[in-house]
Amino acid sequence: MSIRLRLTAWYSGILAVMLLALSAAIYGFVYINTYGDLKERVQKQAEQLKLVPIWGLNNSLLSVGMNFSQASRLEEANYLAQTHIYQGNITQYTENMIASQITFDVPDIKELEQSKGFAQATAGGYHFMIYQIPLRNPVGDPVAILQVATPTNQEDRLMARIKSVLLFGSFATLFAAFTFGLFLARKAMSPIEKVIEAANGIQTGTDLSSRIENDGPPDEIGRLIATVNSMLGRMEGFYTELEDSYAAQRRFVSDASHELRTPLTTIRGNIDLLHKVWEMKPGEGSMTEEEIRQLSVESVKDIADESKRMSRLVADMLSLARADTGRTFDIEPVALEPMMTEVARRASFLPHEAEWVTGDMSALNGKYIVGNKDYLQQMLFIFIDNAFKYTPSGEVTLDTIFYQSQVGIRIRDTGIGMDKDEVPHIFDRFYRADESRGITEGIGLGLSIAKWIIDEHGGSVEVVTRQGEGTTFVIWLPLLFAPPLE
Fold it and tell me: Residue 206 domain-assigned?
C-alpha cells in the first residue's frame, strides 16, 4: 500500500470514528430528550388521576372507579389507561382502548413492586410508553395495578429519520472526505514522485545536472526537495571532480610514460651502440681506438644525463603523488631573512646565463611565516630555475614586498615571457608554456609542485607576463606577527 493511500486510510478511519461518536452523541441527546419529555407527560397524567376504589370484605378490591372528566381528558390527549385487579382477574379499560381493542399485558403480582415505573409495549401494531402504579389496600398490600400509556409512533418516526440522516450524512461525509483526502494526498505527495523520478534518472543514467522543481511552500517536502537538490549538486561536483581526477590521472600516466620513454630509448640506443662497438674484433670496422673511446665517453655521458633526468622525473612524480594523497608536512615558524639569504646564495650556483640580482633582505629581519623551510626553499628554487631557463640573456631578480599581513616574494626575469592565454595552464602537470617555440627543457612538473607547496602554506601566486619582455611571479604568504617563543 502506498503512503498516499495509507495516509488517506488513516485520515478516513479517524474521521469515521469521530463521525460515529458525534452521531451517537446527537442520537442519544435527541433520544433522551424526546422520550424523556414523553415519560414526564405520561407520569404526570398517571399521578393526576383520582381513582375511586370500591372495597369488599377482608379488604378485597371489587372495582376501581375513574372520574368521567378525567377519563375524557385522557382520551382527548391520546392517552390510554387500564386497571387490573388481581383478585378475580378483573381488568377495566378506558373507552378508547375498548374501541381500538388494545390491551396491555400486566406483570405478575409477585413482581408488582418491581414493576412500578416505565415499560414499553407493542399492541395493535403500535408502540406504547407505559407508566405503571401499584394500587394497595388499607393494610398496604398490592392488590391492583394502574397502567397509563401513550403511543410513541411520532417519536419513533422522528428517531428513525434522525438515524437515517446521521447514517447517510456520515457515509456521505466519509466518502467525500476520502475522495478529497486522496486528492490532497496525491497533490501533497506529487513532489515525492518527482524525487523518485530524479533518483531513477540518476540510477539509469549519468546525468547529475537535473534538478527537482518545487513550486510549493517551504514545508517538510520543500525542505526535502531542497536537500535532495543540494545533494545532487554535491554529487555532480564530486562526479565532475572524479572524472577530472581520472582524466588527469590518465593524462598524467600518458605524459609520464612519454617522458620516460624518451630517456629510456636514448639509454637503450647508447647501450646497443656500446655493445656493438665493444664486440668488434681488432681490425674490424673503420673506427680507430681513439674514435671508439670518444664514442664510448659520449654514450656514457648521454646515459648519465638521461638517468639524472629520469631521477628528477621520478622524484617530482613522487612529490605530486604525495600531494594527491593529501599528505602534509611538518610546519613551524620560519624566519624569513636567513631563509631568503640562503636561497639567494644557493641560487647563484644554479646553471644560468642571465645576471642574478638580489634585493635588500634587511626588511625581513624579525619577520616570520608558518611553514616548512625545506619545502619553501624547494618552491623558490623551482621558480628561480624556471626563470634562468627562459632568460638566455638579461637578468633575474629576487626581492620582497609587503602588503597588509602578507609578504610577497617576487621573482622577475627579462626573458622570453609568455602569451597571456598560456598563463592559466602553466601550473598544469607536464605543461610547458614555450614548447611551440622550441624550448623543451624540463618535464613540466616543477610549477605544479611549487603550486602545491604554496597552497599547503595558505598562500597564493600572482603572474604578470608579456611575450618577449619577461615574466614576474609574486608568491604571497601570510605573515606570523608574533615571533616564536624561544
Answer: no
Query: Last residue of a domain, which of 283, 304, 324?
Result: 324
Residue 15 φ/ψ, nearest 5 degrees: -65, -40
pLDDT tens digits, one per residue of 58-96: 667 777 766 655 666 666 667 888 888 888 788 888 777
Q: Are residues 140 and 263 in the same domain?
A: no
- pLDDT for residue 440: 45
| Domain-located, residue 188 | no
How many other CB atoms sit within 10 Å of the CB of residue 112? Answer: 20
Query: In the structure grid, which three cell numbers stand for residue 338, read together?
Result: 636567513
**Which of 128, 159, 190 is the last residue in one of the domains?**
159
Other beta carbons less than 10 A from residue 346's beta carbon? 13
The answer to whether residue 229 is domain-embedded is no
Low-confidence ranges of the chain (pLDDT < 50): 436-438, 440
Confirm whether pTM is higher than 0.70: no
Q: How far is CA 297 from CA 269, 304, 420, 462, in A?
A: 14, 10, 44, 45
Q: Which helix (H) or strand (E) holds 217?
A: none
Domain count, the chain: 3
Q: What are phi and psi of 280, to 5 degrees?
A: -70, 135
Q: Name the grid cell of 290.
A: 681513439
Spatial separation of the C-alpha atoms in residues 459 and 455, rounded to whole Å: 6
Please tell me whether residues 372 and 471 are part of one structural domain.
yes
| Residue 408 structural domain | 332-478
Query: Is the separation of the CB atoms in 341 and 373 below 8 Å?
Result: no
Q: What is the CA radius of gyration of the chain?
A: 56
Phi, psi for 125 (deg, rounded to 5): 80, 10
Query: Which CATH number belongs to the domain containing residue 303 in this structure?
Result: 1.10.287
Spell out the long-range contacts of 110-114 with Cβ–Cβ below 8 A and sequence spacing 24 or more: 112/142, 112/145, 113/142
